[in-house]
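tool_call: predict_structure(chain=1)
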Amino acid sequence: MQLLCFLVICSTTTGCTWWEEDPVEEIVNGTFEFGREIPITTWFHYPGTPSERWAVDATDPDALSASNISADFSGNSTPFFSSATYYGTGFDTFEPTLGITSSGAIFFTNYNGLGDGTHIIRSTDRGQTWEDVGPFSQIDDDSGQTPNSNDPYIYVDKFTDRIIKFDMHVLAAMFVEYSDNDGDSWSTPFPVEGYYVTQDHQSIASMPPPPGVTAFHPVIYVYCINTGSPAAGAQCSRSLNGGLSWDVQRIGFPVESFPQCSGLHGHLAGGLDGSIYRGNPSCEGPAVYRSLDGGYSWTEHTITTEVGMQDGWHAHEVATAVDDGGNVHATWIGDDLKTWYANSQDQGNTWSEPMMIAAPGVVETGFPTIFAGAEGRVVVGYIGESEDYDEENGTGGWSGYMAIMTDAFAERPLITSVAVNNPDDPLDVTLDCGNVRCGGFGDFIDVEIDDEGRPWIALAHNAAGFEEAIIGTLMEGPSLYGELSYLEPLPPGGNSTLLLG
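tool_result:
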């Protein structure tokens, strides 16, 4: 049977061209003719499966045929010319997190450790320049508002535009500070309830009050922490009054699931429907924990038993996101050290087949993170080591990657993968960086989508030893909100924008 396809492929240089009723090979070749060469840091590919754990080059008709993939490059699966870059900030970082408000301002954590705590840096010009916006209130003559931070963390509440600064101190106490004016001023620190020690690996998110829950603020804030005991699992608390006071910490899993097998978890994610999700392993494999009553009680949902989790530093990380349609997306590092992804269209009750989404040529990955935009549009961030890495000769190393899906619910979604740095400009050269705590990466990195639909990824550039905070993004590519269209081009960045050293 003939394949009848009508495709509109537009680029900023060639305008629009039509193809119709061609064999698959001609469709593939035509689809990726953007009028300019695809960058060496961009790949168009299909995900691997549990039985075929490799990326399939979408531009190679023979590879598609060998994997029995019927390529569809229409509608939401239309490929867009894409290229990525990064910009230096001039500030150091550790375990970088970021947030973006509706004004387009980007906020990033600047790690200062003991004595001056976490400061927040801000860019109002799409990452081109950065400034320290504090908080600057004094605890004593030598310190900032919070004099110590072991785990710096920032979160932007998409429902109210509030910026939440959430710091953990000496594994025993945590404080919330917030700004409602793009970081121009900050609240005093509000202590959160913490009765379990160790208090570690905190994460916070928000959602509108679900049916049946009364709140005294437009959103409910929920945080979860790791207690240091895998059996005790994660502990969680909620605030119904905008973070001014908090419930007593409760177990973040159903009672019948005690003992747990991991207390460490990824970032929380709240949905428009009042649901909230936390990813961490169950005793069976990568899992998502869900609350439908404002973070008061939780259910456990194992994603898959086909693909295990990395036996290493990131064995605990399952990252979650919720798109505008209320669908849940999750990513983790598999037992093959590759980045895996699955989605749920029923609040985590059932899951798609897991998909290996690492870019072609990537042999090891770490620090998975995810964010979702419009329904079915997702970006997954990670660091990856390519098969060309040669530590002895000083070539290659670790790069920051984003895997972008504009039709995540397709049976085999087309993935546009980009590296934000060139191969000769690695972010780190540690042999096993994806499996250990290396440089400014710490425990995790972060990714988010601005209101324009452009993805941004928070990373560290460790190669020169300064652990400079860098922000990666698309210079060109598809928007992940609104109409599926090209983003406005941004200027190239790269190594020349680094400011430390």
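agent: The chain has two domains: 1-37, 75-497. Proceeding to next step.
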